[in-house]
């Protein structure tokens, strides 16, 4: 038997923080390739420390639903899962290239295939593009349109910015969009000045965050000038200094993210059959993002922002 365990940050304060995790788990369960699909959280139940005890399978693929490598993926999760032989060198990573490492979790007598975070997998570039398709309602979006991939950026974790640049460079190499730039909240180039970086009139802005929280639904919209007060919402697209800004929700809320979770497990040796193709087909529902131009009361969620690697 093989199981997939999706581990994410969660939040005590923002009830929407875990919604993408549950949604992707449901999508993968419906694909039927794992005998079990479980979720575990840092700030919700079941916890990282207990989640393996909810699994009956003896072969377990653990995939972090995090944006970048860093404190949580390198220290917290391995410690809480009791991967006693964990050594960062097992990933042999340059900060964005972690794939997987296999350990025996003696206390639960299971083989644990610990995978790199979804946010650095090559397939996440496709999710970013799909997010652009969703918010514009155009499955062919690209010609005459620019793309901004937005991340947190922080001196505490340089890998946070590496992940954003990785995908911006990969998408730029596709030659699909007129211009592609990586922008940040807390380092240069800053998303506040989004219109300064593009000549193209139409700009799609996709935040590389796992879930929508105060950064994606409050800070970034106000910083870009989409609205003076996030509580009043904003138009999609919004007119800002001669540009039309199409602002998408967090990339991790895109249904195609479920495919990346499966691909991470497959890279570690999981038998997933045709699930990757099936999930890609099932999630190919293109239409205007109903949440792209409105906001809810997300609150100031310190829990979900404890590490820039986690995303909102």
From TrEMBL:
<keyword id="KW-0170">Cobalt</keyword>
<dbReference type="GO" id="GO:0009236">
    <property type="term" value="P:cobalamin biosynthetic process"/>
</dbReference>
<dbReference type="Pfam" id="PF01903">
    <property type="entry name" value="CbiX"/>
</dbReference>
<dbReference type="GO" id="GO:0046872">
    <property type="term" value="F:metal ion binding"/>
</dbReference>
<protein>
    <submittedName>
        <fullName>Sirohydrochlorin cobaltochelatase</fullName>
        <ecNumber>4.99.1.3</ecNumber>
    </submittedName>
</protein>
<dbReference type="InterPro" id="IPR002762">
    <property type="entry name" value="CbiX-like"/>
</dbReference>
<keyword id="KW-0456">Lyase</keyword>
<keyword id="KW-0479">Metal-binding</keyword>
<feature type="compositionally biased region" description="Low complexity">
    <location>
        <begin position="287"/>
        <end position="297"/>
    </location>
</feature>
<dbReference type="GO" id="GO:0016852">
    <property type="term" value="F:sirohydrochlorin cobaltochelatase activity"/>
</dbReference>
<keyword id="KW-0169">Cobalamin biosynthesis</keyword>
<dbReference type="InterPro" id="IPR050963">
    <property type="entry name" value="Sirohydro_Cobaltochel/CbiX"/>
</dbReference>
<feature type="region of interest" description="Disordered">
    <location>
        <begin position="280"/>
        <end position="312"/>
    </location>
</feature>
